[in-house]
Design brief:
This protein is an alpha/beta fold. The protein has 13 helices and 16 strands. Helices cover 37% and strands 23% of the residues. The protein is globular, with a radius of gyration of 19 Å.
Amino acid sequence: PSSCSEKHPAMADTKLIGFGNPLLDISAVVEQDVLDKWGAKLNDAILAEDKHKPMYAELAESHPVEYIAGGATQNSIRVAQWVMGKPGSTAFVGCVGKDQFGDKLEQAARGDGVNAAYMKHPETPTGTCAVLVKGGERSLVANLSAANCYEISHYETAEIQELVTAANIVYCAGFFLTVSPPTMIALGKHVAEKHKTFCLNLSAPFICQFFKDPLLSVMPYVDFLFGNESEAAEFGKAMGWGEELDVVALKAAAMPKESGSRPRVVVFTQGKDPTIVALGGGISKFDVDELPKEALVDTNGAGDAFVGGFLAKLSQAADLAECVRAGNWAARQIIQVSGCKIPEGPCTFA
């Protein structure tokens, strides 16, 4: 095979494309001392440092682990594909290694109907993410490896340009800001020029803390901004707006925008608490159907699934209330399984 994945036959069907970090999740239910040992906090995500390198092998030796296709953007795209239904409605771009883990990720994405158009790095292994689960909450430690090697030269190839041209919605998790801001800015410019829709997720508190400059360089192109309560509060703090979520949502919505044709929409999820949507100087709140505690397996992939459901309906020109409802419905399905596993059979959202 070439350095790109084989072409999907129905490129013209692509409505939604994601660019991000494809990672294989290594998931384990752990005790508090494991979290403490690696300096990991629940409901947080960090990038692996040298001290974390032995963790992946140790975890596999000391705990029953599950290998699950992951990477925040790819999770959202797989869920969106499931909700949209027609194979090839979505595409995903990122960098993997030429190895078994990369093949696993590609099989999972293609099995779900996503056109996985990976850049394949000959020397660097596919990225992994330790998912430490305790009491249903998750802590993520990502070792990006090949995912960190994505280059704008791949974005500029004819295959990827064809996919980007076909899609009318582009989505990136904030995690991609640590890898290729030039690709994100190129996407933003394309979207602004063609009056398409660019969607970004804050993704983790550390993005707002340590990657604020790249985040702000992409923000003018963002039509839809997503985040959870801890990310939103951290963004507010980084911007000097305080941590009151309604205020942060309104101020983020009012930040300067490249494409003046439509106002920015900001969507903050808060787990089981109401979803906050800011648009045009106003706030709407949408209740979340409560899930019985015993039905919760883990929250890994919940925020990704929310975005997937939301974007699927956005691609079908649904109104915001319907997009939020689909997002919360999708998240509810995913938290009842470990990791971001797509349920068997067609999507039953109605």
